Amino acid sequence: MRFVIVTGMSGAGKSTAMKMMEDMGFFCIDNLPIPLLDKLVDFTTNFQTQMQKIAIGIDARSGEELNKVQDMLEILRQKDVRYEILFLDAEDNVLVKRYKETRRNHPLAPGERVDKGIGKERERLAYLKKEADFIIDTSRLLTRELKGELERIFIGDEDYKNLFVTILSFGFKYGIPADSDIVMDVRFLPNPYYVEELRPKTGNDVEIQQFVMQYPDAKEFLDKLESLIEFLIPRYISEGKNQLVIAIGCTGGKHRSVTLANELYKRLDGNKEYGLKIEHRDIGKDALRGK
Fold first, then answer.
1. Distance CA 86, CA 67 (A)
2. Over the stretch 226-251, which tens digit does the pLDDT of each residue have?
3. Helices 216-239 & 206-213, crossing angle to 10 degrees?
4. What pTM was computed for the model?
Protein backbone atom coordinates (compact mmCIF):
# COMPACT_ATOMS: atom_id res chain seq x y z
CA MET A 1 0.00 0.00 0.00
CA ARG A 2 1.21 3.50 -0.80
CA PHE A 3 0.12 6.01 1.81
CA VAL A 4 0.66 9.73 1.08
CA ILE A 5 -0.10 12.70 3.30
CA VAL A 6 -0.78 15.73 1.11
CA THR A 7 -0.32 19.03 2.90
CA GLY A 8 1.01 22.53 2.39
CA MET A 9 0.10 26.17 2.29
CA SER A 10 -3.48 27.21 1.60
CA GLY A 11 -3.57 28.48 -1.97
CA ALA A 12 -0.52 26.50 -3.10
CA GLY A 13 -2.57 23.97 -5.08
CA LYS A 14 -3.24 21.13 -2.65
CA SER A 15 -6.83 20.57 -3.85
CA THR A 16 -5.66 20.53 -7.46
CA ALA A 17 -2.92 18.05 -6.59
CA MET A 18 -5.44 15.79 -4.84
CA LYS A 19 -7.65 15.74 -7.94
CA MET A 20 -4.66 14.83 -10.09
CA MET A 21 -3.68 12.04 -7.70
CA GLU A 22 -7.24 10.73 -7.81
CA ASP A 23 -6.83 10.46 -11.59
CA MET A 24 -3.64 8.47 -10.92
CA GLY A 25 -5.61 5.86 -9.00
CA PHE A 26 -5.30 7.18 -5.44
CA PHE A 27 -8.21 6.96 -3.02
CA CYS A 28 -8.27 10.55 -1.79
CA ILE A 29 -9.70 11.91 1.46
CA ASP A 30 -9.36 15.63 2.04
CA ASN A 31 -9.39 17.31 5.47
CA LEU A 32 -9.50 14.06 7.42
CA PRO A 33 -9.63 14.70 11.21
CA ILE A 34 -6.09 14.01 12.39
CA PRO A 35 -7.11 11.65 15.25
CA LEU A 36 -8.66 9.35 12.62
CA LEU A 37 -5.42 9.01 10.68
CA ASP A 38 -4.17 5.86 12.38
CA LYS A 39 -7.72 4.42 12.42
CA LEU A 40 -7.82 4.67 8.64
CA VAL A 41 -4.44 2.95 8.41
CA ASP A 42 -5.65 0.16 10.73
CA PHE A 43 -8.75 -0.32 8.60
CA THR A 44 -6.86 -0.62 5.32
CA THR A 45 -4.24 -2.89 6.92
CA ASN A 46 -6.52 -5.27 8.83
CA PHE A 47 -9.35 -5.62 6.33
CA GLN A 48 -9.38 -6.69 2.73
CA THR A 49 -9.82 -3.47 0.74
CA GLN A 50 -9.13 -2.36 -2.79
CA MET A 51 -7.43 0.79 -1.55
CA GLN A 52 -3.80 0.20 -2.48
CA LYS A 53 -2.96 3.87 -2.95
CA ILE A 54 -4.30 6.40 -0.45
CA ALA A 55 -3.81 10.18 -0.29
CA ILE A 56 -4.90 12.08 2.82
CA GLY A 57 -5.23 15.87 2.79
CA ILE A 58 -4.18 17.69 5.96
CA ASP A 59 -3.89 21.45 6.22
CA ALA A 60 -4.70 24.54 8.27
CA ARG A 61 -8.41 23.70 8.29
CA SER A 62 -7.61 21.07 10.95
CA GLY A 63 -7.31 23.96 13.43
CA GLU A 64 -5.93 23.06 16.84
CA GLU A 65 -5.82 19.37 15.86
CA LEU A 66 -2.84 20.23 13.67
CA ASN A 67 -0.77 20.31 16.86
CA LYS A 68 -1.43 16.56 17.21
CA VAL A 69 0.07 15.62 13.84
CA GLN A 70 3.57 15.04 15.22
CA ASP A 71 2.25 12.54 17.80
CA MET A 72 0.09 10.85 15.19
CA LEU A 73 3.02 10.36 12.81
CA GLU A 74 5.00 8.84 15.67
CA ILE A 75 2.17 6.35 16.21
CA LEU A 76 2.32 5.42 12.52
CA ARG A 77 6.08 4.88 12.77
CA GLN A 78 5.62 2.67 15.84
CA LYS A 79 3.13 0.60 13.85
CA ASP A 80 5.76 0.31 11.11
CA VAL A 81 3.51 2.11 8.63
CA ARG A 82 5.39 3.53 5.69
CA TYR A 83 4.09 6.93 4.68
CA GLU A 84 5.21 9.79 2.45
CA ILE A 85 4.55 13.49 2.85
CA LEU A 86 3.92 15.73 -0.15
CA PHE A 87 4.16 19.43 0.72
CA LEU A 88 2.77 22.07 -1.68
CA ASP A 89 4.33 25.49 -1.16
CA ALA A 90 4.41 28.91 -2.83
CA GLU A 91 5.95 32.28 -2.15
CA ASP A 92 4.01 34.58 0.17
CA ASN A 93 3.40 37.24 -2.47
CA VAL A 94 2.03 34.60 -4.85
CA LEU A 95 -0.31 33.26 -2.16
CA VAL A 96 -1.58 36.75 -1.39
CA LYS A 97 -2.25 37.36 -5.08
CA ARG A 98 -4.15 34.09 -5.41
CA TYR A 99 -6.30 34.92 -2.41
CA LYS A 100 -7.11 38.34 -3.83
CA GLU A 101 -8.07 36.82 -7.17
CA THR A 102 -10.47 34.36 -5.53
CA ARG A 103 -11.65 36.88 -2.88
CA ARG A 104 -11.34 34.26 -0.17
CA ASN A 105 -10.43 34.72 3.48
CA HIS A 106 -7.48 32.83 4.88
CA PRO A 107 -8.70 29.99 7.17
CA LEU A 108 -6.39 31.17 9.98
CA ALA A 109 -7.23 34.86 9.64
CA PRO A 110 -10.92 35.27 8.81
CA GLY A 111 -11.71 38.94 8.37
CA GLU A 112 -8.05 39.90 8.74
CA ARG A 113 -5.20 40.50 6.31
CA VAL A 114 -4.23 37.43 4.31
CA ASP A 115 -0.50 37.80 5.03
CA LYS A 116 -1.20 37.48 8.76
CA GLY A 117 -2.88 34.13 8.16
CA ILE A 118 -0.02 32.98 5.93
CA GLY A 119 2.48 33.72 8.70
CA LYS A 120 0.48 31.69 11.23
CA GLU A 121 0.10 28.84 8.77
CA ARG A 122 3.83 28.64 8.05
CA GLU A 123 4.49 28.28 11.77
CA ARG A 124 1.92 25.51 12.18
CA LEU A 125 3.08 23.59 9.11
CA ALA A 126 6.82 23.95 9.76
CA TYR A 127 7.07 20.43 11.18
CA LEU A 128 5.32 18.82 8.19
CA LYS A 129 7.51 20.71 5.74
CA LYS A 130 10.63 19.62 7.60
CA GLU A 131 9.45 15.99 7.47
CA ALA A 132 8.28 16.16 3.84
CA ASP A 133 9.59 13.64 1.31
CA PHE A 134 8.54 15.83 -1.62
CA ILE A 135 8.25 19.62 -1.71
CA ILE A 136 6.78 21.27 -4.79
CA ASP A 137 6.87 25.05 -5.05
CA THR A 138 3.96 26.03 -7.31
CA SER A 139 4.79 29.75 -7.46
CA ARG A 140 5.65 29.58 -11.16
CA LEU A 141 4.13 26.26 -12.18
CA LEU A 142 1.35 25.90 -14.73
CA THR A 143 -1.28 23.27 -13.99
CA ARG A 144 0.17 20.89 -16.59
CA GLU A 145 3.63 21.34 -15.08
CA LEU A 146 2.34 20.44 -11.62
CA LYS A 147 0.74 17.35 -13.14
CA GLY A 148 4.07 16.45 -14.73
CA GLU A 149 5.87 16.75 -11.40
CA LEU A 150 3.30 14.56 -9.65
CA GLU A 151 3.54 11.96 -12.40
CA ARG A 152 7.31 11.89 -12.00
CA ILE A 153 6.88 11.11 -8.31
CA PHE A 154 3.85 8.81 -8.20
CA ILE A 155 3.82 7.15 -11.63
CA GLY A 156 7.42 7.30 -12.82
CA ASP A 157 8.52 6.67 -9.19
CA GLU A 158 11.64 8.72 -9.90
CA ASP A 159 14.16 9.79 -7.28
CA TYR A 160 12.65 13.24 -6.82
CA LYS A 161 14.94 15.95 -5.43
CA ASN A 162 12.41 18.72 -4.75
CA LEU A 163 14.20 21.34 -6.87
CA PHE A 164 12.55 23.06 -9.84
CA VAL A 165 14.80 25.05 -12.17
CA THR A 166 13.48 27.88 -14.36
CA ILE A 167 15.64 29.24 -17.16
CA LEU A 168 14.41 32.76 -17.84
CA SER A 169 15.47 35.09 -20.66
CA PHE A 170 14.88 38.82 -20.18
CA GLY A 171 15.82 42.29 -21.37
CA PHE A 172 17.80 44.59 -19.10
CA LYS A 173 15.89 47.59 -20.38
CA TYR A 174 12.74 46.07 -18.86
CA GLY A 175 14.41 45.39 -15.51
CA ILE A 176 16.08 42.41 -13.88
CA PRO A 177 13.50 39.77 -12.79
CA ALA A 178 12.90 40.22 -9.07
CA ASP A 179 12.82 36.47 -8.40
CA SER A 180 16.18 35.71 -10.04
CA ASP A 181 18.69 33.60 -8.13
CA ILE A 182 21.44 33.73 -10.77
CA VAL A 183 21.67 36.60 -13.27
CA MET A 184 23.89 36.30 -16.36
CA ASP A 185 24.57 39.24 -18.70
CA VAL A 186 25.17 38.21 -22.34
CA ARG A 187 25.40 41.72 -23.78
CA PHE A 188 29.10 41.03 -24.47
CA LEU A 189 28.03 39.10 -27.59
CA PRO A 190 27.41 40.85 -30.95
CA ASN A 191 23.81 42.02 -31.23
CA PRO A 192 21.66 40.76 -34.15
CA TYR A 193 19.47 43.83 -33.64
CA TYR A 194 21.93 45.84 -35.74
CA VAL A 195 21.56 43.49 -38.70
CA GLU A 196 18.47 44.84 -40.44
CA GLU A 197 17.17 41.57 -41.85
CA LEU A 198 17.59 39.84 -38.48
CA ARG A 199 16.05 42.56 -36.33
CA PRO A 200 12.39 41.34 -36.54
CA LYS A 201 13.33 37.76 -35.69
CA THR A 202 13.85 36.24 -32.24
CA GLY A 203 16.12 33.74 -30.58
CA ASN A 204 13.55 31.07 -31.40
CA ASP A 205 14.39 31.50 -35.10
CA VAL A 206 17.20 29.51 -36.70
CA GLU A 207 18.76 32.59 -38.29
CA ILE A 208 19.26 34.27 -34.91
CA GLN A 209 20.53 31.07 -33.33
CA GLN A 210 23.11 30.65 -36.09
CA PHE A 211 24.19 34.29 -35.79
CA VAL A 212 24.69 34.13 -32.01
CA MET A 213 26.23 30.66 -31.82
CA GLN A 214 28.78 31.31 -34.59
CA TYR A 215 30.91 33.18 -32.04
CA PRO A 216 33.28 31.03 -29.92
CA ASP A 217 32.51 33.20 -26.88
CA ALA A 218 28.88 32.01 -26.95
CA LYS A 219 29.84 28.35 -26.73
CA GLU A 220 32.51 29.00 -24.10
CA PHE A 221 29.99 30.97 -22.03
CA LEU A 222 27.54 28.05 -22.16
CA ASP A 223 30.24 25.54 -21.24
CA LYS A 224 31.24 27.56 -18.18
CA LEU A 225 27.63 28.26 -17.14
CA GLU A 226 26.68 24.60 -17.49
CA SER A 227 29.68 23.63 -15.36
CA LEU A 228 28.70 26.19 -12.71
CA ILE A 229 25.11 24.91 -12.58
CA GLU A 230 26.24 21.29 -12.33
CA PHE A 231 28.38 22.35 -9.37
CA LEU A 232 25.66 24.35 -7.65
CA ILE A 233 22.54 22.20 -8.06
CA PRO A 234 23.55 19.28 -5.79
CA ARG A 235 24.47 21.81 -3.14
CA TYR A 236 21.18 23.66 -3.51
CA ILE A 237 19.33 20.33 -3.21
CA SER A 238 21.32 19.48 -0.09
CA GLU A 239 20.45 22.89 1.38
CA GLY A 240 16.75 22.24 0.76
CA LYS A 241 16.20 24.86 -1.94
CA ASN A 242 12.96 24.28 -3.88
CA GLN A 243 13.17 26.87 -6.67
CA LEU A 244 16.10 28.08 -8.75
CA VAL A 245 15.65 30.84 -11.33
CA ILE A 246 18.54 31.29 -13.76
CA ALA A 247 18.00 34.59 -15.57
CA ILE A 248 19.91 35.31 -18.79
CA GLY A 249 19.65 38.87 -20.03
CA CYS A 250 20.52 40.94 -23.07
CA THR A 251 19.41 44.43 -24.00
CA GLY A 252 15.85 43.72 -25.18
CA GLY A 253 15.35 40.07 -24.20
CA LYS A 254 14.63 39.08 -27.78
CA HIS A 255 17.75 37.75 -29.51
CA ARG A 256 20.89 36.79 -27.57
CA SER A 257 19.31 35.94 -24.23
CA VAL A 258 16.59 33.84 -25.86
CA THR A 259 19.12 31.93 -27.93
CA LEU A 260 21.39 31.15 -24.99
CA ALA A 261 18.48 30.30 -22.69
CA ASN A 262 17.25 27.81 -25.29
CA GLU A 263 20.72 26.30 -25.65
CA LEU A 264 21.13 25.97 -21.88
CA TYR A 265 17.71 24.32 -21.64
CA LYS A 266 18.75 21.74 -24.25
CA ARG A 267 21.88 20.94 -22.26
CA LEU A 268 20.06 20.52 -18.94
CA ASP A 269 16.92 18.82 -20.24
CA GLY A 270 16.59 15.17 -19.28
CA ASN A 271 18.29 15.48 -15.91
CA LYS A 272 16.13 13.60 -13.41
CA GLU A 273 17.48 15.34 -10.32
CA TYR A 274 15.22 18.35 -10.81
CA GLY A 275 12.28 19.73 -12.77
CA LEU A 276 13.05 22.13 -15.61
CA LYS A 277 11.17 24.79 -17.55
CA ILE A 278 12.02 27.74 -19.78
CA GLU A 279 10.39 31.17 -20.09
CA HIS A 280 11.09 34.13 -22.36
CA ARG A 281 9.77 37.08 -20.38
CA ASP A 282 10.38 39.93 -22.81
CA ILE A 283 10.58 38.23 -26.20
CA GLY A 284 7.56 40.06 -27.66
CA LYS A 285 7.76 43.42 -25.93
CA ASP A 286 9.61 45.27 -28.70
CA ALA A 287 6.89 44.30 -31.15
CA LEU A 288 4.19 45.55 -28.76
CA ARG A 289 6.02 48.88 -28.43
CA GLY A 290 6.31 49.19 -32.20
CA LYS A 291 10.10 48.87 -32.26
1. 18
2. 999 999 998 888 877 888 999 999 99
3. 90
4. 0.70
